[in-house]
Design brief:
Elements lengths: L1 H5 L6 H33 L4 H50 L2 H6 L2 H43 L1 H48 L1 H6 L3 H26 L2 H25 L5 H43 L19 E8 L10 E8 L4 E6 L5 H6 L9 E6 L2 E2 L5 H7 E4 L8 E2 H5 L8 H10 L3 H4 L9 E2 L8 H13 L5 E5 L7 H14 L4 E5 L11 E6 L2 E6 L1 H7 L1 H12 L11
Parallel strand pairs: 3-10, 3-11, 6-9, 9-10
Antiparallel strand pairs: 1-2, 1-4, 4-5, 7-8, 11-12
Helix pairs in contact: 2-3, 2-5, 2-10, 3-5, 5-6, 5-10, 6-8, 6-9, 6-10, 9-10, 14-16, 18-19
Length: about 575
């Protein structure tokens, strides 16, 4: 884990080395100052030699200035290194997430990934900054001060050793108790973010059903759980202060008592005792800094593990050693294909699928909720890998293709239509980055999106809000279809992508597909029979199995499920194309 995280320091290695170097120099200067101060007392003030007072005073001032400069530089480089480290962590996490297959993404919740890239990275950043400064400064100060103290008076310095052992025992107990609580804290952060994200993204539904109070209560519970955990953790960590002050005052009392006796016995000078008092604070403040570092590291360990999980997660779907870069045509062959979302699952989501689709053919897919229609088409562009059997596109196993090459030739319009903030043109060019406005307009014409775009004052430069909230569901669907058409794919998959479009517009879109892109293989998942009845063949899915394959007429005669759907739609008032002007 540590190696994984430190590999992200990258171009900030120089700053990461300079920060502790200047911190160490700062410590050296601070350790020398009490020695010079002892010389001022013993060789200047008590000896009545003002020349020595001025000389040692000037030296002490110079040491203080150097210490100040080194401290400022250490802070500057530590801030630069920690901020750059955090930036690299976020970039690497985001980059790795982009390589995930759907199965990888399923392992992490969206809110969990957001927490890891924000709160967790900030915790690690703060810990890294403290490590660069405090983890060098505190131990180095402790060691240097102890060495000097033993040099001044070895017997009296044993007081510090006792204090260090005392603090070490109690700090280790505190840390041991606090770590499990902080592990739980960051899991609760995921729950909190999930609650916020869910509420904000579905705010229209919340208000439509007047569920604001319910959502407030749910959020309050998440906040309260987090509060209780933090109170528990901070209550344990709060013992750090009293224990530290006990050690500080204990050392001062012990040194005052034994030091006074030594001065009376002429085994110690006044200047040496004064410097020993200075080193009391240096040594114990170093221990206090170390305890703060331990607290920060304790808090960040859970975050570090969560970040490492994202960085070390390897995509389940990878390119083979010599991938095929060209998709010959849009033919698709399922040979005894079985699929499950979890590798160790005994029950298949799709079971024994045998389906052969010719290039340019239009295939309709219908079935009840949970019949695995979306799961079937997700396999074609290799968003998931099959469990067993063979799936070929263009006559070649999909696992032999370069992923980018395959997905560029398989355009998918998913059930959930996603638009991004930006203009309509910006959204359309997700399909083809360098598409001209004319190409975008032609794709929109095929998708029947030009009708409403032309009514906007800014037309294709109309701004789309995040998630497409300022356009209707049907408009979003048509824009997403146009975006997919811009890819000029060999296979076009519409996953219930015209459900919000009226039947007349749906018919126009299908007619445009048939006449303008006849060579493209079209797979249409729909709930309305009218959307697929003119398809070359229709596949009826039931509980992950193919229940029937045939034309509209053939299935009406032979397939009970298709007959049932047809009858239900007819009895409900019909769901067929109607003629008329938009």
């Amino acid at each position: 884990m540590v190696k994984t995280l430190l590999s992200q320091v990258k171009q900030y290695k120089k700053a990461s080395l300079l920060a502790p170097l200047f911190a160490a120099l700062e410590v050296v200067m601070e350790v020398l100052i009490p020695l010079v101060m002892a010389s001022i007392i013993d060789k200047g003030i008590e000896a009545g030699d003002m020349k020595n007072v001025y000389i040692y005073g000037a030296v002490m001032l110079m040491l203080a200035m150097i210490s100040l400069l080194c401290g400022a530089l250490a802070g500057k480089y530590a801030a630069e290194a920690s901020s750059g480290f955090a930036c690299n962590l976020r970039e690497s996490m985001y980059e790795n997430i982009q390589t995930y297959s759907f199965s990888n993404i399923d392992r992490f919740s969206t809110s969990g990934l957001v927490t890891r890239m924000t709160t967790d990275v900030t915790n690690v950043q703060n810990a890294f900054q403290m490590i660069l400064r405090m983890c060098i400064r505190a131990p180095f100060m402790l060691i240097c001060a102890l060495v000097v103290c033993f040099f001044i008076n070895a017997k009296l310095s044993l007081v510090y050793v006792v204090a260090i052992v005392f603090l070490g025992i109690f700090l280790s107990i505190i840390i041991k108790k606090a770590i499990p609580i902080f592990d739980e804290v960051f899991k609760r952060y995921d729950d909190l973010n999930e609650s916020v994200q869910e509420n904000v993204s579905a705010i229209r539904v919340v208000k439509a059903y007047v569920r604001e109070d319910f959502e407030k209560e749910k959020f309050s519970k998440a906040v309260d759980n987090l509060y209780k955990l933090f109170v528990g953790a901070e209550s344990i960590l709060a013992n750090n202060g009293p224990i530290m002050m006990t050690a500080v005052y204990g050392c001062i009392l012990a040194i005052s008592w034994f030091g006074a006796k030594m001065i009376v016995g002429s085994t110690m000078t006044t200047g040496e005792l004064t410097s020993m008092f200075s080193y009391v604070m240096n040594i114990l403040m170093s221990l206090m800094m170390l305890s703060m570092v331990f607290v920060m590291i304790t808090m960040s360990m859970a975050s570090a593990r969560r970040i490492s999980e994202v960085l070390t997660e390897t995509p389940d779907i990878k390119d083979c050693d010599e991938p095929v870069m060209d998709v010959k045509d849009g033919s698709i062959d399922f040979d005894n294909v079985c699929f499950t979302y979890k590798k160790d699952s005994a029950e298949n989501v799709l079971d024994n699928i045998n389906l052969h689709i010719k290039s340019g053919e239009t295939i309709g897919i219908i079935g009840g909720t949970g019949s695995s229609k979306s799961s079937l088409v997700n396999l074609i562009s290799r968003l998931y890998d099959i469990k067993s059997g063979l799936l070929r596109v263009g006559g070649i196993d999909v696992r032999k293709y370069d992923l980018e090459a395959l997905r560029n030739q398989v355009a998918v319009v998913l059930q959930k239509n996603v638009l991004f903030s930006g203009s309509i043109l910006d959204n359309l060019r997700w399909g083809k980055e360098d598409a001209t406005e004319e190409e975008c307009a032609q794709a929109c014409k095929l998708a029947c999106a030009d009708e409403f775009i032309e009514r906007f004052p800014d037309k294709y430069n109309t701004h789309i809000e995040q998630g497409g909230t300022n356009v209707s569901g049907g408009q979003r669907q048509r824009l997403c279809i146009a975006r997919a058409l811009l890819k000029n794919p060999k296979i076009l998959i519409l996953d219930d992508s015209t459900s919000a479009v009226d039947t007349a517009t749906d018919a126009k879109i299908r007619e445009a597909f048939a006449t303008k892109i006849p060579d493209v293989t079209k797979i249409i998942i729909a709930q309305r029979i009218s959307s697929i009845q003119d398809a070359d063949r229709i596949v009826v899915l039931d509980d992950g199995r193919i229940s029937g394959i045939g034309t509209h007429e053939e299935l009406l005669e032979s397939n009970y499920i298709y007959q049932e759907v047809y009858e239900s739609q007819i009895n409900a008032g019909g769901d067929f194309d109607r003629k008329g002007d938009d």
